[in-house]
Write the structure tokens for this entry.
Amino acid sequence: MDFLQYFIDGLYIGAIYAIIALGYTMVYGIAKMLNFAHGDVIMVGAYMSYTFVSASGMPVYLSIPIAMVICTVLGIVIEGLAYKPLRGTSSLAVLITAIGVSYFLQNAAQLIWGPAEIGFNRLVNAKPFLLFGGKLRISPEAMVTLAIAVVIMVALTTFVNRTQTGKAMRAVAEDRDAAQLMGINVNRTISITFAIGSALAAVAGVLLCSKVQSVSPTVGSMPGIRAFTAAVFGGIGSIPGAMLGGMLLGLVETLTGAFISTQFSDAIVFLILIVVLLVKPAGLLGKQTQEKV
Amino acid sequence: MMKKILAMLLAVLMTVGVLAGCGGADVSGKKENDGASVIKVGTSGPLTGDNAVYGVAVKNGLELAFEEINALGDLQFEVKAEDDEADSEKAVNAYNTLMDWGMQIMAGPTTSGSAAATAQKCAADKVFMLTPSASDPAVIAAGDNVFQICFTDLNQGKASAQYIKDHNLATKIGIIYDSSSPYSAGIYNTFKAEAAALGLEIAIEAPFTEGTKGDLTTQVTMCQQANCDLVFLPIYTSEAVKVLSVANSNGYAPKYFGCDGLDGILSVENFDTSLAEGVMLLTPFDATATDEKTQSFVTKYTEKYGTAPNQFAADAYDVAYAIYEACKAGGVTADMSAEEVNAIMVEQITKMSFDGLTGQAMQWGADGAVSKDPMAVVIENGIYVGMD
């Protein structure tokens, strides 16, 4: 019964990692860059939700669309100001810029909302369902989070596979220069990718802070790193891979914490990652690309 | 030939440089002593970052106390606070900045990790150090001139276990602590040893680290699955509010017992303080106490800074007065060097008996620890109520 309880807990945090990982994987797949500021966009989304909820007293779920809109704008602005001018330069320059953006967002949040932890209202304020005489608890919030993650993944897959913009994204991911020659607006496509990634980050931010019930300027950085790991684990660039990676990471983390050691759960998680990458370098669902010589 | 001349020239220049260096140090040493008419007291603490609430409280407490002391008209003090973000490396930088400024007495740092690093420097440089709140025993172990005004982690862990045993609070105890923090791990170790000696059952030990402190659900669930009826929280408020909130939404309501790190839990923004009802914690300072000294301090502090003082502010306030009394008794003057002040302060502090906000008749041993008993309070209706 304990195992089942931790399994559910693991799926809950895993679903949140999965949503964050989707953002990482899309941006990496299409823009070929690691957006290390992604974790901090999560934090901004959470603070936005907190600000609107505490100012107007609206329920948390109503604040999600507002946070999404603001983060979408933020994502496009970051991309336009910090990343677009560096397009075509070395990927190292873009990476360093992303780290700079990350610090900028964290410190800006510290200035605006202060450095201390602030309580965060729950998305679904209800007692957990009790099964097996109270031995197993399933929180309604966990079910909502899982459902949201699945809906997002299905919607994203459909979008990428069925729409004109999705086709453009796949084309840019495959070969940027060829896509441009075919008349695809590469800059616009990359901007759209950032917009979608940032909107997802806002959702993840609200779900994450609603789970831990607090928000602080560094709330997004560790989950961001873990979700990045999850994206690599599942195969970076692959949408179902990010989903699978996030879920597995959440499960492994929770189960090793509960049954081996909460102190070393991170070490064990990353050890597993290394082993998986040694056996399958492209990640679980990643495409093995062959270099033509 | 040219090369030889050049080498000679350089050697001469270097020798002159070394001599000039010596002279320079002498001159600057004199200047800093002659020019000053105030005794310079430095402190460092987290003024920004996660633990800013503690560092700012210490800074405020010191400033308020020294304002009062300066108004008395005899000895004059100047206090300077540097930000160390609770990071030991930054604390050493802060210490160096303060020494450049001409610090004669160190009234800090706030947190244990920083204080342990600064204590090494103070011991080596012979600068008197009295920390308001760094409770790790490693801090005072650094040297004979390093003192604490707060009770040590050793005391807190032991006193918590004894308190739980004496009042029969628990049959199964769960501990959630931060294994990456010297403060939290220190209390955990002594608590565990004392609990074993007293025959208390610790059912679950659920540590977290700097990297995993964002989400403490697993730790809470572990305590819940094991049916712990008391959860011991030797941690700071920012993590404690997560534990309380997550436990509440999981329908888990054990008793909670914490140490001085929980002080301030009632002032976390947007936190449902009704969840903290019944939480027990060790603190040497109770802002609701009715004695005149406490009341006057609380009123003045609230007027000046807009919030009620916590234990860290009270500790700092006591540090300022202890320094003042020791300086007065030992005849410390503003023109003495830090080393001269150090010798007098060490002698005075070990023979004084000090009455402050956080305890009566406090005395310091040569090891640097203060004799002061932790006091347990329980949160009732949003205020601390003393327990016996």
